[in-house]
Design goal:
Length: 344
């Protein structure tokens, strides 16, 4: 077996950061392969920003360490970490022109390179705007300048903290695509904080889902969606139906209403089964079948979301196209055993 060519570009090991009695970051470890885009995704207060600030050197961890390219940088100040950072607020210097803002990290390092400034402004889609001042730019343009400034000294790692949060939806989506394309072109290892699942999914190679200071699961978007390992991940990443009950032998779950559901995992006895709304068929029978009554129908244009009361709980079903049922209708729900995710 051949050894891997190199280790991760960035490794976080057992990071802990407390503020008083709050463990904002509670034993967090992860690896980011070179050139990968990792998102830290989680609800407000889950510790995403604190992890980023530990990586950037703006906070000191109470325990744990951070390696970049195999070297321990835990004790280095921010400017010695070879890291570029983009913040949520446009942290540009208001009294400096765009070109001077972008050149700032070079000047801090005793360099001056106007051609490189022009090259970076071109890379972020702002050619020729170097003479303007920040107040003469839109919010989206200001974030592009911040990105150019973060990348100009060719850092090994790029950190971004909700850089698009203040922008409207259209612009946000355009910049998501642009940032991802630039990141791939430069092959820069990137760690990106967001609370927006779709943003994390469209941009990332890897997503780490955070909850209460911990990483609940880390993996490619598809793995998180298809194989969530906790109920929290299942509910935070897309919509889910959770069926809980008592284990009834290998691969079988008995609901409190009496029905038995079957899981794809036939070794362990689950306590919870997760089924995505689009995996359920209305008016059919399948590996698992439940009877219920429609309580709500919402037509979204490309799809219909139907709420059904079945097995003593509300079940959400998503079907393509227009509604075929009305509230009050009796219906069967069916889903394949292979479309269930079992949790112990
Ligand atoms: P948001 O999406 O709202 O920015 P987040 O996931 O980035 O949230 P953090 O900002 O990392 O979460 O905060 C994690 C926890 O640590 C929260 O309970 C927060 O109140 C607390 N915290 C963060 N910074 C400090 C600080 N400087 N002093 C005290 N508590 C803090």
């Amino acid at each position: 077996m051949s050894a891997p060519l190199s280790g991760p570009a960035l490794a976080a090991r057992h990071l802990v950061k407390r503020f008083g009695t709050v463990a904002a970051v509670d034993d967090v470890s992860f690896d980011v392969p070179g050139g990968a885009f990792l998102s830290l995704l989680g609800p407000s207060g889950s510790g995403k920003t604190t992890v980023l600030r530990l990586l950037g050197g703006f906070e000191r961890p109470d325990a744990g360490h951070i390696d970049i390219g195999g070297a321990d940088i835990t004790r280095l100040p921010p400017f010695k970490r070879d890291i570029g950072m983009v913040f949520q607020r446009y942290a540009l210097f208001p009294h400096m022109s765009v070109a001077d803002n972008v050149a700032f990290p070079l000047k801090q390092r005793g360099q001056d390179n106007p051609a490189r400034v022009d090259e970076m402004l071109e890379a972020v889609g702002l050619p020729g705007l170097g003479a303007r001042f920040p107040h003469q730019l839109s919010g989206g343009q200001q974030q592009r300048v911040a990105l150019a400034r973060a990348l100009i000294f060719r850092p090994r790692i790029l950190l971004m903290d909700e850089p698009l949060a203040a922008l409207d939806k259209h612009l946000r989506e355009r910049l998501q695509a642009e940032i991802r394309a630039l990141q791939q072109r430069l092959r820069i290892t990137t760690i990106y904080v967001t609370h927006d699942q779709s943003e994390a999914f469209v941009m990332s190679d890897l997503v780490a889902v955070m909850n209460a200071g911990k990483i609940e699961q880390i993996g490619p978007p598809r793995t998180l969606y298809d194989s969530p390992r906790t109920a929290f991940v299942a509910q935070f990443v897309g919509d889910s139906n959770l069926f809980t009950g008592t284990p009834a032998g290998p691969g079988a779950l008995k609901l409190s209403s009496g029905e038995v559901l079957r899981a794809a995992d036939t070794v362990n006895a689950p306590r919870t089964l997760i089924v995505r709304p689009e995996r359920i068929t209305l008016g059919a029978s399948g590996g698992n079948t439940l009877r219920g009554v429609v309580t709500e129908v919402r037509f979204l244009g490309e799809a219909t979301v139907t709420r059904v009361r079945a097995a003593g709980q509300d079940v959400t079903v998503r079907t393509p196209g227009a509604p075929t049922l009305s509230p009050g209708a009796e219906v069967t729900l069916a889903f394949d055993i292979a479309d269930t995710v079992a949790l112990p």
